[in-house]
Write a structure and sequence with these properties.
By secondary structure, this protein is α/β, with parallel strands linked by helices. It folds into 2 domains: about 80 residues, Rossmann fold (3-Layer(aba) Sandwich); about 130 residues, Rossmann fold, CATH 3.40.50. The chain has 10 helices and 11 strands. It binds 5,10-Methenyltetrahydrofolate and magnesium ion.
Length: about 290
């Protein structure tokens, strides 16, 4: 039987409907409109597309969004000054500074400067620490999107062996923590693999749930996957020749091996954006 294709676009649309209702309810009781501010430094093409999509998403659910576009040569001091003013501005609930940043700016310094209660990416060390301790304020958007795809698709994580490929601070590391946590979408036995892992395919072949977040086109081949495994593809790579978005897994080949799989595009990407909306509403609620 070919793999069930997990429709992230549809699941994200359902989520947005729920968020829109929650935003309306929040507004009815407080008169507050949640407000997300995105900062885009420079003119990276992919970043510009992502930020534009995000603005359209906000409009769909009744969240106000503002975009600050800064030139590529912006100094770190100037960016810090903008973030400080946004931190203090009560009408701003969520702040997202689009990554990557130009070379003259230290990303960690910038992420550390965002008020943790407005940190809708959940990249601030205080929020990362809270996730590690199992008492999150915000969950990072891409890992939360992956977890929600599993829950919405009825894929049991409890007791399952989840293998996470990739140890980034943005996806692999926090997702591993979340899958291990007690409760829905958690209680998994988690293995994290990375570029230095020995015997990689023996490990990935033990996965009931395999999550690929390494940023390498078609890295996960059919021989690395146990028949019947669920595969979540976090990769968003641009195919040099066709210009199309491709994931980290050999999708066509895995259709005959996996029990369920996410496509790229239309899998994790739309979920990431939906979770950002949810975090913005959470931030607005926190401000009350
Ligand atoms: N501070 C920060 N937070 C982020 O969350 C963040 C970031 N910086 N920098 C860049 C990455 C990347 N990212 C994506 C989110 C959604 C799609 C997405 O919606 N993808 C669609 C396709 C979009 C298209 O066609 O280009 C899909 O997969 O179906 C893609 C990429 C968020 N990021
Ligand atoms: Mg993300």
């Amino acid at each position: 039987m070919p793999a069930k294709i997990i429709d992230g676009k549809a699941i994200a649309a359902d989520l947005r409907e729920k968020i829109a209702a929650d935003v309306a309810e929040f507004h009815a009781s407080t008169s507050v409109t949640p407000h997300l501010v995105a900062i885009l430094v420079g003119d990276d093409q992919a970043s510009a597309v992502y930020v534009r999509n995000k603005e359209a998403d906000c409009a769909k659910v009744g969240i106000k969004s503002t975009l600050h576009r800064l030139p590529a040569e912006t100094t770190q001091a100037d960016l810090l000054e903008l973030i400080q003013s946004l931190n203090h501005y009560p009408d701003v609930h969520g702040i997202l500074c689009q990554l990557p940043l130009p070379a003259q700016i230290d990303e960690q310094t910038i992420l550390d400067s965002i008020d943790p209660s407005k940190d809708v990416d959940a990249f601030h060390p205080e929020n990362v620490g809270r996730i590690a301790q199992g008492r999150p304020r915000f969950l990072p958007c891409t890992p939360h999107g992956c977890q929600h795809l599993l829950i919405a698709s009825g894929i049991e994580t409890k007791g399952a062996h989840a293998v996470v490929l990739g140890r980034s601070e943005i996806v692999g590391k926090p997702l591993a923590m979340m899958l291990m946590q007690r409760g829905a979408g958690g209680d998994a036995t988690v293995t994290i693999c990375h570029s230095r892992t020995k015997g990689l395919s023996e490990i990935t072949r033990q996965a009931d749930i395999l999550i690929a977040a390494i940023g390498k086109t078609k890295f996960v081949t059919a021989d690395m996957v146990k028949p019947g495994a669920a595969v979540i593809d976090v990769g968003i790579n641009r195919d040099e020749s066709t210009g199309k978005l491709v994931g980290d897994v050999d999708y066509e080949a895995l259709l005959d091996v996996a029990s369920a799989i996410t496509p790229v595009p239309g899998g994790v990407g739309p979920m990431t954006r939906a979770m950002l909306l949810r975090n913005t509403l959470t931030a607005a609620k926190l401000s009350r």
